Amino acid sequence: SAPILEVENLTKHFPLHGGLLQREVGRVHAVDGVSFTLARGETLGLVGESGCGKSTTGKAILKLTDPTSGTIRLKGVDITHLSRAQMFPHRRVMQVIFQDPYASLNQRMRVKDIVAEPLGNYEPDSSRAERLEKIAALFDRVGLRRDALNRFPHEFSGGQRQRLGIARALAVNPEVIIADEPVSALDVSVQAQVVNLMMDLQAEFELSYLFIAHDLAVVQHISHRIGVMYLGRLVELAPKRELFRNPQHPYTEALLDSVPVPDPRRRRKRAVLRGDVPSPINPPKGCHFNTRCPLAFDRCFHEAPPLREVAPGHMAACHLR
Ligand code: SF4
Ligand code: MG
């Protein structure tokens, strides 16, 4: 079937001003020509170090920031240039879960009202009692006690607040969830609980997830496919197992080094990541990875490698593949 979400050549550049006259002194290439699709019921993990553009990609899809160019299609509809009002019916289809559940919840509202708020926008004809019953049922589903409905967010643990965030997102029956580092602020044991909950909910409600994280270990369990971003570009995109077993981009290999391998005999010699991520302001010409790549050669410094299929369903952007 057709993908539920299609991102085509998405680019987001911010002009950077400086000096006495505040002239444009450079451009931040936050997102630089990113393309991917998300299938119904699929989880696509989007991974990369901070500043790689993964959050900006999520924000552009959610229309929280306007892309410089490119196209975003939701269920076949081009939503790239829709106004707030035009976006209203589509917004319901696509909900967000943020990294810091505490910061994203209004501290002065009772949690039942926080969760009910989006529902009220989309089901104005429903009675308050109906909405409350729906929310109570959602609380059961996400593992929160019903007597918590009257509490305030600060009375909840980090994991419980993320369950609240999930309940709030689910209240309007979405089909796509953009989850921007949803478990990064949580303890490892709690991370696993929230990830498992998200997987159960995905199966039950046929949800599609774009799951953004800064390391592969977090997305390993939940993802069907994984996309790796580096300095605004998607450098590799592959089914999960394929990416772990047969990485094709030197950056992915380096990232895999940081994921613990259970059997040390299976550990192979991989590229060690040297240096820091260069600034996204006026990034290196050619391949963005050329300043850190142990395999870089002449061509890498003047020609950007396109993302292309190197095996069925496996894309990589490297001149050596
Ligand atoms: Fe390394 Fe060149 Fe491949 Fe970029 S294109 S990852 S610099 S070998
Ligand atoms: Mg981020």
UniProtKB/TrEMBL annotation:
It is found in: Cell inner membrane. The keyword ATP-binding applies. Keywords: ATP-binding, Nucleotide-binding, Transport. One of its GO terms (molecular function) is ATP binding. It comes from the Bacteria. Gene3D superfamilies: P-loop containing nucleotide triphosphate hydrolases. Its main location: membrane. CDD domains: ABC_NikE_OppD_transporters (cd03257). It holds the Pfam family ABC_tran. One of its GO terms (cellular component) is plasma membrane. PROSITE patterns: ABC_TRANSPORTER_1, ABC_TRANSPORTER_2. The keyword Hydrolase does not apply. One of its GO terms (biological process) is peptide transport. Residues 5-256 form the ABC transporter domain. InterPro entries: AAA+_ATPase, ABC_transp_ATP-bind, ABC_transporter-like_ATP-bd, ABC_transporter-like_CS, Oligopep_ABC_C, P-loop_NTPase. It is a peripheral membrane protein. Belongs to the ABC transporter superfamily. PANTHER family: D,D-DIPEPTIDE TRANSPORT ATP-BINDING PROTEIN DDPF-RELATED, TRANSPORT ATP-BINDING PROTEIN. This is Peptide ABC transporter substrate-binding protein. The lineage of its organism: Bacteria, Pseudomonadati, Pseudomonadota, Alphaproteobacteria, Rhodobacterales.
